[in-house]
Amino acid sequence: MEYFIQQLINGISVGSIYALIALGYTMVYGIIKLINFAHGDVFMVGSFIGLYSAKYLANAGLPPIVVLLLSLIISMTISALLGITIERLAYKPLRKSTRIAALITAIGVSFLLEYTGVLILGPQAQGFPDIMEKKQYHLFGSSIQVESNQIMILLTTIILMLVLQYIVRYTKTGKAMRAVSFDVEAARLMGINVDRTISATFAIGSALAAAAGVIFGMTYNSVDPLMGVMPGLKAFVAAVLGGIGSIPGALVGGLLLGTVETEISSLGFSSWRDGVAFAVLILILIFKPSGLFGKNVREKV
Amino acid sequence: MLTVQGINVYYGAIHALKDLSINVKQGEIVTLIGANGAGKSTLLKTLSGLLKPKTGSIEFLDKSIVNQSVQAIVKEGLIHCPEGRRVFANMSVEENLELGAYLQDSSSLAADFQRVYNTFPRLLERKKQQAGTLSGGEQQMLAMGRAIMGHPKLLLLDEPSMGLAPLLVQDIFKIIKEVNDAGTTVLLVEQNAHQALKIADRAYVLETGRVVLEGDAKELADSDEIKMAYLGH
């Protein structure tokens, strides 16, 4: 039992990373019906920016918690700008063309980011600095261990979720985002600037992916230019699992996928881990294509 | 207030509006009547900037709005309440109204809510309810309330009575008249020509993208041509 709970805690850490990335997939899909396959690579860029910021700031002698916060902020800000730029240059010109054209462009942008990364940073993995000193805590005197990193990850994820929830529910931009994703034309008739609203969506999604990148670096201590591929695909699975377009769906889908994967590994099937994630995708697509929180999509006739 | 001169609008290869000219004066209710596919909705979409005419001019308050963005046109006070209500079903009544005031200064928000709730007391009762759960009539009220939140100088209404029970239709037309009496100019597209001609000052009859008849609403309502074609006498 304790072993199971231990793995559940580990699973939640992995799941938090998937959930943060999945939010970007789901928000962008909600607003322009595009599966942004470059999103996993924005996560990678965010991770590298986090790495360099953390190194620089730690050398400057700042206390660890400040280093963590500043690295997160820097990484999220630059990645948000990257997200806006990608949308403006690659997707906006295609907004009136077929969805498949935009999808293929997204795959192109993904390769562009990956191999620009390889060109500049080299293909080999780099060590992510230990921002916080790693401590182990025992839960309620049992043998269940919780790392300080895992607590930081959970806290960061919860805070970001709350901020996101606040933005989407209560701010003008958030309401505009919901309006545009529901009915673009009606939103325009309210005087909503659709272009700016789409930019905001990309900015928020990319910033969340960057936060996931920093958290990933802190957890696995190793980052490389192709690191975004697998987590990107997994987060896509998580978004579909939760119901693409649904924000709570992305959160639940991410956490669920993370825990299922970790439990499978812990049962001794670690080589099956990735296979299980995609088996989950296939099963959802067969039995509940709209996902856990998704609405049934009615095609307009 | 609004002068449309010789506009030609295309939907892909379809020539939807042909050399169409209309005008609306301050304080009027002008109605556009005509069969399905006559181009009424197309005209409203062109006025609000959703569609761009190939040729012709549109002047609103003595300024050309042909090349303006939808957002700029809304800011000028030309507000389009679209066909089929198009409320944001996943949001509350209150949030829908707030989006109607998207370009307004937030300082006037409270007074605007008050104004809309006075006109539509039903919306006040349901302000926390999801718009998608409202009845058809309530959704129409919400769509109109949402448009009014944007301080329209000219309000474009597309088929506000569509699919409503006769009693509700009466209510909706009464409210349109009230809104007009309170100082908002109205351009009204209607299938229900009988009711529309009753409250309107002037009317245009559209057929396959052209104005075929225009004039005083009362006179048109009495003309045999209109009676035969649109009023079912």
Automatic annotation (TrEMBL), chain A:
Acyltransferase in keyword set: no
Topology in the lipid bilayer: Multi-pass membrane protein
CDD domains to which the protein is assigned, alphabetical: TM_PBP1_LivH_like (cd06582)
Keywords: Amino-acid transport, Cell inner membrane, Cell membrane, Membrane, Transmembrane, Transmembrane helix, Transport
Any Pfam family the entry gives: BPD_transp_2
Cellular localisation: Cell membrane
Family assignment from sequence similarity: Belongs to the binding-protein-dependent transport system permease family. LivHM subfamily.
PANTHER family registered for this protein in UniProt: BRANCHED-CHAIN AMINO ACID TRANSPORT SYSTEM PERMEASE PROTEIN LIVH, HIGH-AFFINITY BRANCHED-CHAIN AMINO ACID TRANSPORT SYSTEM PERMEASE PROTEIN LIVH
The protein's name in its UniProt record: Branched-chain amino acid ABC transporter permease
Organism of origin: Paenibacillus phytohabitans
UniProtKB/TrEMBL annotation, chain B:
Gene3D superfamilies documented for this protein: P-loop containing nucleotide triphosphate hydrolases
Family under the similarity heading: Belongs to the ABC transporter superfamily.
SUPFAM superfamilies: P-loop containing nucleoside triphosphate hydrolases
GO MF terms, alphabetically ordered: ATP binding
Matches recorded under PROSITE patterns: ABC_TRANSPORTER_1, ABC_TRANSPORTER_2
Protein name: ATP-binding cassette domain-containing protein
This protein's UniProt keywords: Amino-acid transport, ATP-binding, Nucleotide-binding, Transport
Keyword Nucleotide-binding: yes
InterPro entries reported in the protein's UniProt record: AAA+_ATPase (IPR003593), ABC_branched_ATPase_LivF/BraG (IPR030660), ABC_transporter-like_ATP-bd (IPR003439), ABC_transporter-like_CS (IPR017871), BCAA_Transport_ATP-bd_LivF (IPR052156), P-loop_NTPase (IPR027417)
Domain of life: Bacteria
Domain annotation ABC transporter: ranges: 2-233
Pfam families listed in its UniProt record: ABC_tran
Coiled-coil ranges from the UniProt annotation: none
Transmembrane parts of this sequence: none
